[in-house]
């Protein structure tokens, strides 16, 4: 999940350069990366002009990205002073993962009823490949695909849309920063798979919720390690 924190399970490829929307997304992604890697600390002022120069883009997409990040709670705008990194607490991070887990749990609950035998086999194959993989970046990619398939199997465009928004606002780095996370994730994925195969909607929901709650604890530990809350 890189040195920034999208879900223990939901980061995707970065935006491509191109139109205004992509430039805004690129700027937002870079600001998140700097915040959650500890490069920009809570309370630090964000130099919009310098950031635009570093990214090789105009100031407009940077300003638009900061508005988006203000809505996410990552950035705080102070009148006549500028944009600052918001002072998020450990509970803010944990709560975000819990919310992510609740929505993901709903998707898994639906998926338990909808998944075809072929889709279950595809998930099993992904879990097998993830367990055998040693490259963190590839583990991240397979992990993303595993959860993406479950989310889409819910058959709910609304849940998938909400999960896409939530995924953009959390930190990643689990597979690189926590040596024991791949093993933990693999065990969780097997339990989730077993629940899905048994068509146990309630158990699939509960397991996914716990999986993401545990991810929240790992995210807090990772941010502490990176000095996120150090003065």
UniProtKB/TrEMBL annotation:
<dbReference type="InterPro" id="IPR000524">
    <property type="entry name" value="Tscrpt_reg_HTH_GntR"/>
</dbReference>
<feature type="region of interest" description="Disordered">
    <location>
        <begin position="1"/>
        <end position="21"/>
    </location>
</feature>
<dbReference type="InterPro" id="IPR008920">
    <property type="entry name" value="TF_FadR/GntR_C"/>
</dbReference>
<feature type="domain" description="HTH gntR-type">
    <location>
        <begin position="21"/>
        <end position="88"/>
    </location>
</feature>
<dbReference type="InterPro" id="IPR036390">
    <property type="entry name" value="WH_DNA-bd_sf"/>
</dbReference>
<keyword id="KW-0805">Transcription regulation</keyword>
<dbReference type="GO" id="GO:0003700">
    <property type="term" value="F:DNA-binding transcription factor activity"/>
</dbReference>
<dbReference type="GO" id="GO:0003677">
    <property type="term" value="F:DNA binding"/>
</dbReference>
<dbReference type="InterPro" id="IPR036388">
    <property type="entry name" value="WH-like_DNA-bd_sf"/>
</dbReference>
<protein>
    <submittedName>
        <fullName>DNA-binding transcriptional regulator, GntR family</fullName>
    </submittedName>
</protein>
<dbReference type="Pfam" id="PF07729">
    <property type="entry name" value="FCD"/>
</dbReference>
<dbReference type="InterPro" id="IPR011711">
    <property type="entry name" value="GntR_C"/>
</dbReference>
<dbReference type="Pfam" id="PF00392">
    <property type="entry name" value="GntR"/>
</dbReference>
<keyword id="KW-0238">DNA-binding</keyword>
<keyword id="KW-0804">Transcription</keyword>
């Amino acid at each position: 999940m890189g040195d920034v924190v999208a879900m223990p399970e939901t980061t995707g490829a970065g935006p491509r350069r191109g139109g205004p929307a992509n430039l805004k997304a690129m700027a937002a992604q870079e600001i998140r990366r700097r915040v959650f890697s500890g490069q920009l600390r809570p309370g630090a002022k964000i130099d919009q002009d310098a950031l635009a120069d570093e990214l090789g883009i105009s100031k407009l997409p940077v300003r638009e990205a900061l508005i988006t990040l203000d809505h996410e709670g990552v950035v705080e705008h102070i009148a006549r002073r500028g944009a600052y990194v918001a002072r998020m607490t450990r509970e803010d991070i944990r709560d975000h993962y819990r919310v992510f887990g609740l929505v993901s749990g709903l998707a898994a609950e639906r998926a338990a009823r909808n998944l075809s035998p072929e889709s279950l086999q595809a998930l099993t194959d992904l879990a097998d490949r993830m367990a055998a993989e040693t490259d963190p970046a590839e583990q991240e990619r397979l992990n993303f695909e595993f959860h993406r398939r479950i989310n889409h199997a819910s058959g709910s465009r609304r849940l998938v849309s909400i999960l896409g928004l939530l995924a953009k606002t959390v930190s990643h780095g689990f597979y690189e920063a926590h040596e024991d996370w791949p093993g933990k994730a693999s065990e969780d994925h097997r339990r989730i798979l077993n629940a899905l195969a048994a068509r146990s909607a309630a158990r699939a929901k509960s397991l996914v919720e716990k999986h993401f709650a545990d991810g929240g604890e790992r995210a807090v530990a990772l941010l502490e390690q990176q000095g996120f809350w150090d003065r």
